[in-house]
Design a protein that fits this description.
Layout lengths: L1 E5 L2 E3 L7 E2 L3 E2 L5 E3 L1 H15 L5 E8 L4 H9 L4 E6 L6 H15 L2 E7 L10 H9 L3 E10 L5 E8 L1 E8 L2 E5 L11 H7 L4 E5 L33 H15 L4
Length: 255
């Protein structure tokens, strides 16, 4: 019985992104595990720590450099990992089909975790497409998971304005929300041990997935530019304070 955690290799949110040409970025920046996937990895490790006999497998579709992200995932608790190698980035349709094919080929899933979204594309679609490809129930933005050791059902709470309770037959797909837990970051010994854990590499073409006739194509990447117009405030302290309140209320509309 396996817990699969789908992770994405994403740019550090603090990195300076530089567009090259029209459709690519300079990738000589810091890349890491998608932050929402850290919650998924932490929850998988928590479930295993309760004494349930499971193997945690991290799965990623990415370029060869994504192996570093999988090493990080194994340092956070994954026992082994699968890298589906590709030479470019893909949309959620191809990503979900590739993840589903790799999981189906690998073994016996019990719970499949993803993050509720990725911080780069923010599509929030992969978990639903993955569940559809595998014919499994799915819940996203999950903030609590209760997994029975019998492996038959999984109960979870989903935040959607209210807290909705889902009881799903296993196997199932769960999109981890930020409120699920506090990510457990690895210690130095964890990092050292992760270097010895296996990473199985599969070429995307080996999975022989169906590719849609029409999918997402990047036409052009344009850097986001914030337009700022400085405005000098004059007068007494009381007058300046009144002007600030007026700007926040009537222009910025934040109060």
């Amino acid at each position: 019985m396996n817990i699969y955690v789908c992770v994405k290799h994403v740019p550090d949110s603090a990195a300076t992104i530089t567009v090259e040409g029209k459709t690519a970025i300079n990738e000589k920046i810091t890349w890491l595990v998608n932050p929402y996937d850290e919650h998924a990895l932490t929850e998988a490790a928590r479930i295993k720590a309760t004494g349930i006999e499971v193997e945690i497998v991290a799965v990623c579709l990415g370029k060869p450099a994504a192996e570093n992200t999988l090493r990080s995932a194994m340092a956070m608790g994954a026992d082994r990992s699968i890298l589906i190698e590709t030479d470019r980035h893909h949309d959620s349709i191809i990503t979900a089909r590739a993840l589903a094919a790799a999981i189906r080929k690998d073994g016996n899933p019990w719970i499949i975790f993803t993050g509720k979204e990725s911080i780069d594309s923010e599509g929030m679609q992969t978990q639903f497409r993955l569940a559809q490809n595998l014919g499994l129930p799915v819940a996203t933005n999950v903030v609590k998971v209760d997994a029975d050791s019998d492996g038959v059902t999984v109960e979870c709470e989903r935040e959607a304005g209210t807290i909705d309770v889902y009881r799903m037959a296993a196997p199932c797909v769960i999109g981890a929300g930020k409120g699920l837990n506090n990510p457990s970051y690895p210690t130095f010994p964890d990092i050292v041990k992760s270097r010895k854990k296996p990473v199985k590499k599969i070429g995307l073409a080996e999975l022989a997935i169906d590719k849609p006739a029409a999918g997402m194509q990047i036409q052009e990447l344009v850097p986001a530019v914030e337009q700022r117009t400085p405005k000098a405030l004059t007068g007494s302290a009381a007058e300046i304070a009144a002007q600030i309140v007026d700007i926040l209320k009537n222009e910025a509309k934040v109060i």
